[in-house]
Amino acid sequence: MQIGILTSGGDSPGMNAAVRTVAAAGIGRGHKVLGIRSGYAGLLEGDVLELDLAAVSGISGFGGTILGSARSSIFPTPAGQQQALARLGKLGLDALVVIGGNGSLTGAHALAQAKTCQVVGLPASIDNDIGHCGLAIGVDTAVNTIVEACDRISDTARAHRRAFIVEVMGRHCGFLAMRAGIASEADAILYSENNPSEEDLVQRLREVLQRCFSNWHKKRALIIKAEGIQVSTQLLTRRLQEYLDTDAPGVDIRETILGHVVRGGRPSAMDRVIAQRLAFGALLALEKGAHDIMLSWDVETDEGQRTQDPHVRIFPLAEVLAETGRLLDGSSVVVQGRLAMLSQVENLLIL
Ligand code: F6P
Fold first, then answer.
1. Which pLDDT band holds residue 301 (cuts at 50, 70, 90)?
2. Cβ 169 under 6 angstroms from ligand 1
3. What is the best residue among 8, 106, 169, 175 to mutate for testing ligand 1's pocket, by most ligand atoms within 8 Å of CB?
């Protein structure tokens, strides 16, 4: 088979391990593998290179993506889709592996409708907002990066007896804030899934800070805030400082927005393993004729088609995208489960 591979959308740590496995295992199994540079934008232009073992050797430990990535504005248009299909034909691809998040998988599903070449998606997004996927490639590293940053911030916060708000990426999904918040011993975790208003947030956080500094005499208070929250971090900091001045005189609050720091860096061993096993599963699935599907890691329900790997399942891309919609509008049982778990521990966080 002639297999094309691209990474698209926001890069995530572990993408390179997936590229390496598709290329190295693909070559080993007798296929030819073409790397497409800069995501769908590169596909439109035919910007490809044949991957040999030397090109992918040692890349699993690199952050970002050696193929480059992009968020193409032309590709999603009808003209862009036609151009991409024509390019797939010109390149003589039998199969295309798309590694990316929601937008990238939506693009993969659209291309798959023409049935001119097999299309398989691999979930990669630090946000963990992809339907029917327990952990996407990159999430584990991002959580570890946040936890390390929060440990550092906690050191300086304790030295000065301060409160901190740390804002983390995640676009419309609070998963990173939730998981990293628990691991960092945060005193409060803010996420947009329960739609808090500015006043709710401020009053709740005022109480948290009162309990931290007046009742429990803590040395630091840590608030992890998901970027999807509509109230700005600066505004929250300002309003909470006003309350602290009367509730706990002498205690200051500071903010840190981690931003793209959370997306870069060397992938954790776990992310490399997830990426490699998903990529190998993709190869085996392609050889069996799979089309318009995504490989998933550690699905939380009993759904999906099982594979020889107990952690890896297969889902039609249409089902993945439908469940992604439910994750983002909050109606998914997975989101409900996360919210129920968080509401149970919420009052225990500051202990
Ligand atoms: O989807 C991944 C992500 O890192 C989000 O967490 C964030 O909102 C967005 O991408 C940032 O995108 P960009 O790098 O294009 O600013």
1. confident
2. yes
3. 169
Give the residue carrying structure tokens 């939506």: 106
Q: Is residue 183 assigned to a domain? A: yes
What's the predicted TM-score (pTM) here? Answer: 0.96
Of the residues 209, 241, 263, which one is the last residue of a structural domain? 263
Ligand 1 pocket member 130 (CB < 6 A): no
Q: Is any atom of ligand 1 closer than 6 Å to the C-beta of 100?
A: no
Domain interval for residue 187: 141-263
Per-residue pLDDT tens over the stretch 48-91: 999 999 999 999 999 999 999 998 999 999 999 999 999 999 99
75 contacts 107 by C-beta, under 8 angstroms: yes
For residue 349, name the pLDDT band (cuts at 50, 70, 90). confident
Mutate to test the pocket of ligand 1, among 106, 176, 192, 263 (most ligand atoms within 8 A of CB): 263
Q: Is 177 in the pocket of ligand 1 (CB under 6 A)?
A: no
Instruction: Say yes or no: 12 and 77 in one domain.
Output: yes
Task: State whether the beta carbon of 127 lies less than 6 angstroms from ligand 1.
Answer: yes
CATH code for position 216: 3.40.50.460
- Are residues 219 and 96 located together in one domain of the fold? no
- Kindly report the protein residue whose alpha carbon is nearest to atom 11 of ligand 1: 10
With beta carbons less than 8 A apart as the criterion, state whether 127 and 193 touch. no
In degrees, to the nearest 5, what angle opens at C-alpha 178 toward C-alphas 173 and 181?
A: 140
Mapped onto helix, strand or coil, the DSSP state of residue 294 is strand
Domain membership of residue 115 (yes or no) is yes
Show which residues are catalytic.
Answer: 127
How far apart CA 85 and CA 38 sit, in angstroms, is: 17
User: What CATH number is attached to the domain comprising 64?
Assistant: 3.40.50.450
CA distance 16 to 14: 5
Distance (Å) from CA 257 to ligand 1 centroid: 13
Q: What pLDDT, on a 0 to 100 scale, did the predictor assign at position 351? A: 61
